[in-house]
TrEMBL record:
Name of the protein in its database record: Coenzyme Q-binding protein COQ10 START domain-containing protein
Alphabetical list of InterPro entries matching this protein: COQ10_START, ORF3, START-like_dom_sf
Domain Coenzyme Q-binding protein COQ10 START: 88-215
Superkingdom, taxonomy of origin: Eukaryota
Residues annotated as transmembrane: none
Organism: Glycine max
Database matches in Gene3D superfamilies: 3.30.530.20
PANTHER family: POLYKETIDE CYCLASE/DEHYDRASE AND LIPID TRANSPORT SUPERFAMILY PROTEIN, POLYKETIDE CYCLASE_DEHYDRASE AND LIPID TRANSPORT SUPERFAMILY PROTEIN
């Protein structure tokens, strides 16, 4: 009768534990009838998954097979979605035009410090986020692409590099001089904020709601 021993070493890009010196090995022993298998610690950046299967039999013969496979481990958590909406006392065309002015967004969105449209690629823009929260100074940046809009109905975007995020602004008419603006932002929780992930979503929803309140005032004076 044979027995099988499986030994695994998984490395990720997130530095969750200190690396062992390369001269040291990790050793695991399973049961009295199993052999001990040791293998060197691998760099966290390799994302390499190793499995060693040791087969022993009553005749004391042993066959060892090693399988090498790559498995990606994301350094960030799951996506979270935040949606807020508000009735704005301006015509829908004014709200749409105002929100389309990306470089003006830092004037009313609390946590956006700057937005710069690329001169040679007007559908791309660089965003910077700076805000103090959860006892730390939070700073992120990303390059975003504005997707094809639907005039007076929808503006949407997705990040191309930097902080992973995407979102959409939808506009619904309420009358000749008012509309409803609905803002949805989706993002992957950075590893930096993983310890406060459960509190992050309601916190951001509060910031987005404040942003819409300021947007309502900004849009009235927008020309």
């Amino acid at each position: 009768m044979s027995s099988t021993t499986v030994v695994g070493s998984i490395s990720t890009t997130a530095a969750l534990t200190p690396l062992l010196p390369s001269s040291r090995t990790s050793r695991s022993t399973f049961g009295a009838n199993s052999t001990s298998t040791s293998f060197p610690a691998t760099p966290l950046s390799s994302n390499l998954l190793f499995f060693k299967l040791n087969h022993t039999s009553s005749s004391s013969s042993k066959r060892t097979s090693t399988f090498h496979g790559f498995k990606r481990f994301s350094p960030v958590m799951e996506w979270q979605d935040c949606t807020v909406k508000m009735e704005i006392d301006v015509p829908i065309s004014v709200a749409y035009t105002c929100y389309s002015d990306r470089e003006a967004i830092p004037n009313w969105m609390p946590f956006i410090s700057s937005v710069k449209i690329l001169p040679d690629k007007p559908d791309l823009s660089r965003w910077s986020l700076k805000y103090k929260a959860f006892g730390r100074d939070i700073e992120f940046s990303w390059l975003a692409r504005n997707m094809q809009p639907i005039p007076n109905q929808k503006i949407h975007w997705r990040s191309m590099e930097g902080l992973p995020n995407r979102g959409a602004v939808r506009f619904y008419p309420k009358g000749p001089s008012s509309c409803v603006v609905e803002l949805t932002v989706s993002y992957e929780v950075p590893q930096l904020l993983a310890p406060v992930a459960s509190a992050l979503q309601p916190f951001l929803e509060g910031l987005l709601q404040r942003g819409l309140e300021r947007f309502a005032k900004f849009a009235k004076s927008y020309t």
